Amino acid sequence: MKPSQITQQRWKFILLIFAAVIAVASLVYTNYLVRNLAHAERSKAEVWAMSTKNIMTMPDVDDEFITFIYAVRDSLNLPAIITDDKEDIIFWRNLDSTKTNIKPGHNDSVTKHLDYDPAYFQKQLAFMKKSHPPITLELENGQKWRVYYKDSWFLQQLRVFPYVQLSLIALFLIIAYTVFNSIRKSEQNLVWVGLTKEAAHQLGTPISSLMGWLELIRIKFDAEEDDTLNEMENDIKRLEIVADRFSKIGSTPVLTNHNLYDVIKNYMDYFRVRTSNKIAFELKGDTHLEAQLNIPLFDWIIENLLKNGVNAIGTEGKITVNISENIAKEEIFIDISDTGKGIPRSNFESVFQPGFTTRKRGWGLGLSLTKRMVRYHQGQIFVKESEVGKGTTFRIILKSNLKYEATQI
């Protein structure tokens, strides 16, 4: 690992530790506040319970004292329920004011505008029992009241707050990381695009010189129709195409209508003479199908797949390209088959990932670039079938440029 990569990993680790410390500190401090606030609310609940008991059980006393007790009770606004020994509800506080557990007729002037809903109170009581242990009040007649309560709205929100806070921070960090990573990759892509365009520009001069020297050789040796010089010219033209590919990286390719059979045949004729004569090539199928293509990029697709087949075969074998059509979907199928070593089914998707290669000197970019270039042609590519030791078939699907009208019978 390079020193710069080690430094980056170290900083990532430090930032991760720092984020974890912030998260733990936030949770610990919030839990500290929650515990103290919960203790304060239980004290409030006890005061409310005692004041309610005094109001309901004390004899006639001074009106000012009663008013004071009422004021103390009403200032404590926790949701609470008081039950007797039989767990019957005898009083409640800060629950839904439109509901009641008092049967109609008990006091019509009070209950006639309320909704009799004892199930609501039982549900609230069950929730309060789970929230906190009850506060027990012993009356003078020997009865015992139990006071149940639940946390105030503020305390409930405070319990949730650190998790919401951490979630928002995590979301912000993810968005920030994604944005900065995207910017970094964009800058890297611009650098690579600049390098490829500069490479194409630099190749232009020697390629033009080679064409000139080739013409001088033909004139000097009167070899206008020499096969060797013709193949050299084809190679120089191929270099021009490669330079043209690099010059167009980063630009949207222009697609024009072409006959697929002719385009593939032209490249296969060039490729065949530069490959071992022990590897046979066959092109078959429909010779009339047309599609929208960018010739330099489409030749690159075929080149990568043919080279992939040759590498898979090794010494002796056969590569077949079959062109067919799905008339119903107006799609063209291009099946490129080889008799090579095959691909395990578990690697059908992995072969298109950047860096995946089974060769010691391979970069693992050929099929990845091929898939991207097929997408430029609004198509798709996948491993149609493969068997280890017998061969592989890649399928390219393109939109047909020929339209068919339904016939009436």
Describe this structure in words.
There is one protein chain. The protein has 409 residues and is of the alpha+beta class. The protein folds into three domains: 3-151, no CATH class; 178-250; 256-399, Heat Shock Protein 90 (2-Layer Sandwich), CATH 3.30.565.10. Helices cover 54% and strands 18% of the residues. It has nine helices and 13 strands. A five-stranded mixed sheet has the order 8-10-11-13-12, covered by helices on one side. Strand 12 (380-387) and strand 13 form a beta hairpin. The radius of gyration is 41 Å and the shape is elongated. The model has no long low-confidence stretch (mean pLDDT 81). The chain crosses the membrane at residues 13-34, 160-180. It is an enzyme of class 2 (transferase).
What spatial form do the alpha-carbon principal axes imply?
A: elongated
Helix content: 40-55%
Number of domains: 3
Query: What fraction strand?
Result: 15-25%
Spatial strand sequence of the major β-sheet? 8-10-11-13-12
Count of alpha/pi helices: 9
What is the subunit organization of this protein?
A: single chain
Secondary-structure class:
alpha+beta
- N-to-C SSE series? HHEEEHEHEEHHEHEEHEEHEE
Mean pLDDT: 81
Main sheet overview: 5 strands, mixed
- Termini gap: 71 Å
Radius of gyration: 41 Å
- The tally of beta strands, per DSSP, is 13
Poorly predicted ranges: none
